[in-house]
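Human: Can I borrow your eye for a moment on a structure tokenisation matter? Separate attempts, laid side by side, tell us more than any discussion would. Could you pick a protein and write out its sequence and tokenised fold? No explanation is needed for now; the record alone will do.

Assistant:
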Amino acid sequence: MLAHAVHNGLFIIAGPALVGLPVAAPLLAAGGMMLAAIAWFYHVRPRPGQLRHAVLAVGFGAALIASTAPLYRRLTDTWWVAGVHRLCVYWRVSNEQLLARLLTQERNRRLTVVRREALVASLMARPCQTTPRQTGLLALLDPGAASMGTTWEDDAAVLFDELVTSAPSTSANGELSRRLGHHFPTAFADMVLEHPEALLRWLPLPERATEAALQLQCTPDIRDRRILLGALERIFPGAVADVIHRLPADALTPFDRRHLRMHYSENDAVQTDEH
């Protein structure tokens, strides 16, 4: 009874991970086999001959678990992709909530390469009902596919508008904005131009100086770069020099150097020139 209760407790605790984490089922099966063996030893007190049979049974069980684990892993990947794709297409929640859940799956290492590729294929075969959601998902899952879309900057603008107006802001709001900003720098700059206060949660300086430098590096258009640097300077006066200094040498532009000369001392400009 004790072994049965313990195994039921393990299933209740780890049951939701059976699809999310492929390793959960083999571990549960091995745990159940060990608990059954312990209960059998305690109850029967086997003789040496019976002990040999028990060892053979345990070995057979272990071999069965090991041989079926790859098949189970493929099944769980298929079930996971089918379930997540259905949520993406039919789940009536905000895009921010859905994308935040996807980031959580990625952070918990449940969004493997195999699952990522299969989910992208499913979204291509059966897209979401709204194009902004489709664009946001592909930007997170397959940045190369997202950059191929010529009209997707408008969809990104819709996503940024949802992120900047969401109240209360979720913990993933800044991460989502930065990830989308890398793929859609023009839409990011347009939103910053309209709502510069969004930088307080998207790229707070000096804490996010490295991320701000990466966003600047992903913004090659001079107009968008001017907007981004100007907004950062207004919201975080005196902190933008550190952002520019974090840029790789080949990513520095004459406009960046000009910004330093206009807003900072000669030492900052000289440091950038040497860099």
